[in-house]
Specification:
heterodimer; A: 398 residues; alpha/beta; B: Peroxisomal Thiolase, Chain A, domain 1; OB fold (Dihydrolipoamide Acetyltransferase, E2P); 2 domains; 22 strands; 27% strand
Chain lengths: 398, 482
């Protein structure tokens, strides 16, 4: 195996907008808000940037194709720019592009910025999913939405592990309640209100068996990271955060078309996690990972991800949930910033938002939700559907 | 010997008690009340999809490559141009070197299609013709037609090998009798006075055609086991029987109080119902009504025993039903009630028709591929084998999934996705014999759906883009009718 990029890249500056229904802000405005914070945080000047990576997912209601929206908005002087898109892994994909470019020696300092302006569709939820899959799939795919696709994972999971809907929904509700509790402590979060398990379980049904509170916020926002060669990072700040691992995995079609996968886990997630741990040199993730931001687009996704990441045993993540293992004061706090559930989910920004939280935590700047002496922080995105998807995993540390 | 080789039928799952209709809108025209129930298409069904369902029932496990022609009849096909017969033939995954024809414009089109199939086989040009007759007629809100019309379809396979009922002869009468009419600009039929339709047309033309075929074939009407013809008005079928001198037991029970008057499908459905109960040697006479009448006389052969009980036909479909307890739902399924669908529901996919052409076997025929190397069936069609242990490239042969049953490995009922009959249900299907894909689920209720449920594939309307004039058909999973 190739040696990977562990400790070759440092993050020296990060920014993240407030997420939410930013009716007064367009994609360009969000880009500026995230970039200004990152630039100020990094100690570099705008002219030091040598190349950019823009992550944005939905074409129809966003800043537009190519890297033009980024470089034009920031008036970057004719430097290279690349737009990337990889469903919900888009933000992490932008970081991956910037990190790999620096690791290759092509550039010293690069910008990764993810942005999504979702609240211009005129309706709730994400834009039409099937139309994101190409015209042929638009014909062949069922009439899906994201909650329905993940609802199917909950149905399969409940069935396999013999959970009646009430039992299953209760575990899922505890996951959401935890994130609501954390979200209250985060001034940039979209949803800042506690919700009880009972409230969550009683919420209106969105897609069986997932109710309203099993679904994350659909938000506008942007997040940015400035990365540089690890050996020059301390010129800019004393506490840079180093990338230990950046992995991405894409479904091969097996889940969708071959009869083996049972719908109760994300195959890409478990395979990609193993690669990420290997790159970072982590042998026992349950002991070594200090905190996580995982892709809780739906509560069931978070539950299954605990298992895909080899932290909870298959079928038993519910026990860890009940034991408070993933609470802010638990063994591995998960979603300390509220997660997609409460921080919100502007798709192109989400991966970078997660790293922003890990970065702040590692530097001891996470305010009310500060985790004690975290070592490694893990972020996880899953884009698409359980049946065919993109998963990205990053591990960062000091 | 030319005749019927196989038969099948389809009646949509939804039935509405006419009291429900009357209660909702009977105030408009209090004389419309009729007893019984009628069959109503689901929102994703129409005369094309019902014709396909009836045809699939009829074709059973018959090798579809032996079919040389597809004749389909309806007055409510969605397309005036783009042959509906070819959409249906594509759904059956028939060969491309076949004849296809639409029979339309009159309610006797169903029997005319059967007659034409008989003649085609007799002439020797073709060996097997699949005929489908299907109608999904809509009466104006508050009209008598709204209560009378029912939705349904039937299909017969006409051939000269393995005939279950040989065709002894036919007699047709044709008149420009304007009982009802509709131009290409009208949504609904217009009707002349009932008494005129009944006393001048209905009673006379059917009698004339029936007497004509009996005389031609030298058969005494009293020797016919079942005489079948549509019933437009409760009881009037009996007065024809009386005039013909038929014993009441000779009259095939009409569908008016169970399905409704099913248009072009009606006579063929009655023929199928008669065949279901027939024994070798029975003579069956079927007549239609519309712009005159066609009458056909059949004699059942010993072969009937081989097919009995292997078709759902009329009997099984009459049994399997779900009560539709809302008039508003019925008319919203018909597009008669402008519903708030939201911006999500208004968004229409762009229909790339050249892509539909390229992928017609997959989209209309639900054909995927099977790896010649490892034998793994896969949908949609793949070039590189999906089996991770195989991965062969370019080793695929066509493989039909539409006739394979499957089980649901998971499912959901989605209230966010736009669906005319929420929640939108969909799930992942594992096909028997291998292969998996995800599909919309229709004709199911969330509460009675479960992991492991047996499903089969049903040809349905996926969407209708009114602005672009495209009806897009595809396949959905439906619970297996046991």
């Amino acid at each position: 195996m190739a040696e990977g990029i562990k400790d070759k890249i440092a993050i020296i500056g990060m920014g993240c907008t407030r997420f939410g229904e930013r009716w007064d802000m367009g994609g360009e405005d969000l880009i500026v808000e995230a970039f200004d914070e990152a630039l100020k945080d990094s100690g570099i000047e705008k002219k030091d940037l040598q190349a950019t990576w823009l992550g944005s997912c939905m074409d129809d209601n966003n800043a537009g194709k190519s890297a033009l929206p980024l470089n034009q908005t920031l008036k970057l002087p004719f430097i290279p720019g690349t737009r990337v898109e990889n469903f919900c892994a888009t933000g992490t994909e932008a970081l991956r592009g910037a990190a790999y470019a620096v690791a290759s020696g092509a550039y010293d300092i690069c910008l990764a910025l993810g942005v999504e302006k979702l609240k211009d569709t005129g309706y709730g939820g994400l834009p039409d999913m099937a139309s994101q899959m190409g015209t042929k799939n638009r014909f062949l795919m069922p009439n899906v939405t994201a909650p329905g696709c993940f609802g199917m994972m909950a149905t399969a999971y409940f069935e396999k592990y013999g959970l009646d809907p009430k039992e299953g929904k209760e575990i899922l509700a505890m996951i959401s309640a935890k994130s609501h509790k954390n979200g209250v402590k985060n001034p940039k979060a979209h949803l800042r209100r506690e919700a009880t398990v009972e409230q969550i379980m009683k919420a209106p049904m969105i897609a069986w068996p997932l109710g309203l509170y099993d679904c994350c916020g659909v938000s506008d926002g942007a997040a940015a990271a400035i990365v540089c060669r690890a050996d020059m990072a301390k010129n800019f700040r004393p506490d840079p955060v180093y990338i230990k691992s950046l992995q991405i995995g894409i479904s091969s079609g097996e889940e969708l078309m071959y009869n083996e996968w049972d719908g109760t886990y994300v195959k890409t997630g478990s395979i990609t996690a193993a690669k990420a741990y290997e790159e970072a040199g982590i042998k026992n993730p349950r002991e070594e990972i200090g905190m996580m931001e995982v892709h809780d687009c739906f509560s069931i996704t978070e539950l299954v991800t605990y298992e895909d990441l080899q932290i909870s045993e298959r079928g038993k993540a519910g026990n860890d949930v009940r034991d408070g293992f993933y609470e802010l004061d638990g063994k591995i706090p998960c979603q300390p910033d509220g997660g997609l559930k409460c921080f919100g989910h502007p798709i192109g920004a989400s991966g970078l938002r997660m790293i922003y939280e890990m970065y702040k935590q590692l530097q001891g700047n996470a305010g009310d939700r500060q985790i004690k002496n975290p070592k490694y922080g893990l972020t996880h995105n899953m884009g698409g559907f359980p049946i065919m998807n993109v998963v990205s995993i990053s591990i960062v540390g000091l | 010997m030319v005749g019927i080789v196989s038969y099948g039928a389809y009646i949509p799952r939804y039935r509405i008690d006419r009291k429900v209709i009357y209660k909702a809108i009977g105030w408009m025209n209090p004389a419309t009340y009729m007893p019984g129930e009628k069959a109503v298409c689901n929102f994703d069904e129409d005369s094309v999809t019902m014709a396909v369902a009836a045809g699939i029932d009829c074709l059973g496990d018959i090798d579809r490559s032996t079919i040389d022609a597809a004749y389909v009849a309806s007055t409510t096909f969605p397309y005036l141009e783009r042959q509906n017969a070819q959409i249906i033939a594509s759904a059956f995954n028939l060969r491309s070197d076949i004849r296809t024809a639409d029979f339309t414009d009159t309610l006797k089109a169903g029997t005319t299609a059967v007659l034409s199939a008989v003649d085609a086989v007799k002439a020797g040009g073709v060996n097997n013709v699949v005929v489908c007759a299907s109608d999904c007629r809509t009466g104006k809100a508050g009209s008598a037609q709204e209560e009378i019309f029912g939705d349904g379809a039937a299909s017969v396979l006409i051939g000269d090998n393995g005939v279950v009922a040989k065709c002894l002869g036919s007699h047709s009468v044709s008149y420009d009798f304007i009982d009802h009419w509709r131009t290409n600009e009208d949504t609904y039929d217009r009707q002349w006075e009932d008494r005129f339709i009944r006393d001048v047309g209905y009673k006379n033309f059917i009698m004339e055609a029936i007497t004509g075929v009996a005389n031609k074939c030298g058969v005494d009407i009293k020797d016919i086991a079942k005489v079948a013809y549509p019933c437009l008005y409760g009881g009037d079928d009996k007065s024809i029987a009386k005039k013909l001198g038929l014993d009441p037991s000779q009259l095939q029970a009409p569908l008016l109080s169970t399905v409704g008057y099913a248009g072009t499908g009606d006579s063929i459905m009655l023929l199928v119902a008669a065949l279901e109960d027939a024994k070798p040697g029975d003579k069956i006479l079927v007549a239609s009504f519309g712009t005159g009448s066609d009458a056909l006389l059949f004699e059942v052969t010993d072969e009937i025993e081989k097919i009995k009980g292997k078709r759902r036909g009329i009997k099984k479909h009459l049994e399997v039903k779900k009560e539709l307890d809302s008039y508003e739902k019925m008319i919203s399924f018909r597009g008669m009630l402008p519903m708030e669908v939201g911006i999500r529901g208004e968004k229409m996919p762009f229909s790339a028709l050249s892509e539909l052409w390229r992928c017609r076997d997959q989209m209309l025929g639900l054909c995927g591929t099977k790896c010649k190397k490892c034998g793994t069936p896969q949908f949609p069609s793949q070039i590189v084998c999906v089996n991770p242990e195989c991965g062969a490239s370019g080793e695929m042969e066509s493989y039909r999934f539409s006739d394979k049953k499957g089980t649901l490995i998971t499912y959901t009922g989605d209230n966010l996705a736009f669906c005319p009959n929420p929640p939108a249900m969909y799930g992942v299907v594992n096909f028997e014999g291998g292969g998996r894909f995800w599909f919309d689920i229709s004709d199911a209720d969330l509460d009675s759906t479960s992991v492991g449920m047996n499903v089969e594939m049903s040809f349905r309307k996926k969407y209708v883009d009114k602005a672009f004039g495209v009806h897009f058909y595809y396949w959905k999973a439906v619970p297996v009718i046991e």
